[in-house]
Amino acid sequence: MTMNRALSAALILASSMAASAALAQAYQWKDSSGRTVISDTPPPASVKGTKSIGTSPPPAVGTGGAATDAPKTTAEKDMEFRKRQQDAREKSEKEAKEAAAAQQKRENCDRARSQLGALESGRRMVVPDGKGGEVFLEDDARNAEMERARKIIADSCN
Question: Can you give the residue ranges of every domain in the chain?
Answer without folding.
Answer: 94-156
